Amino acid sequence: MANESRPCPCGIGDRFDYEGCGQEVQVEHIEAYVCKPPASTDKAVIVIHDIFGWQLPNTRYMADMLAANGYIAICPDFFVGQEAWKPSNDWASFDDWLKTRNAGKIDKEVDVVLKYLSEHCGAKKIGVIGFCWGGAAVQHLMLKNPHLKTGVSLYGVIKFFDDRSSLLHPTFFIFAEMDEHIPLEQVTLLEQKLKQNCKVDYEVKIYPGQTHGFVHRRREDINPQDKPYIEEGRKDMINWLNKYL
């Protein structure tokens, strides 16, 4: 039974009722969701899911949005068959659950996905976006993977990689002002370290009044006061990708 007195902060938001326009494929040892744009392109974006996994309709909605904006979008199962977190899980068990799902140990899977995008989709320019757990994974990849062109980290958990800020590629960081999971002091510290150590273009943006997960876990029609910020976050993400891919 879930610990309701201390619920998972990542559970804030809405689960979309959304089917998805793409298809599920097998990429070597990984399952993945792929959505392609109507016109052929050599630009692709890897979408890294949050703790709720690659099948969350919200994440597929974001992948389809990327495809509608002209990108091949692929959302692989970076938990590689391990069970995603469920809202009904006891938050007290979260740390143990997380130990077997390290956002900094996805390099093997990313290499497989990059090969698939190149050989089967004709992709030559590849970026990455990620949410929460996936946002931290984006930061990890921007620090070390030479084959990616750019990244957007949406409310990535800073504490996973807070001691490393020498990014290889232009990176856009999206944060929420009211995020209980990522205090603004951490965001300020990240900005300071990036200013000291980062040699590539980057941007850190805080969206006022928003909570964790707002870009992909908030429905505009339920929370009209959030709608401008949800739309702004999505537009900013697309604009960043357009600039660097």
TrEMBL record:
Query: Could you tell me what this protein is called?
Result: Carboxymethylenebutenolidase homolog
Any one annotated GO CC term: cytosol
One molecular function GO term is:
hydrolase activity
Pfam families attached to this UniProt entry? DLH
**What organism is listed for this UniProt entry?**
Grus americana
Q: Where in the cell is it found?
A: Cytoplasm, Cytosol
Q: Where is the Dienelactone hydrolase domain?
A: 30-245
- Family affiliation: Belongs to the dienelactone hydrolase family.
Keywords, A to Z, come to: Cytoplasm
For this protein's source organism, the top of the classification is: Eukaryota, Metazoa, Chordata, Craniata, Vertebrata
Superkingdom of origin organism: Eukaryota
Query: What InterPro entries is this protein classified in?
Result: AB_hydrolase_fold, CMBL, Dienelactn_hydro
Designated gene of the protein: Cmbl_1
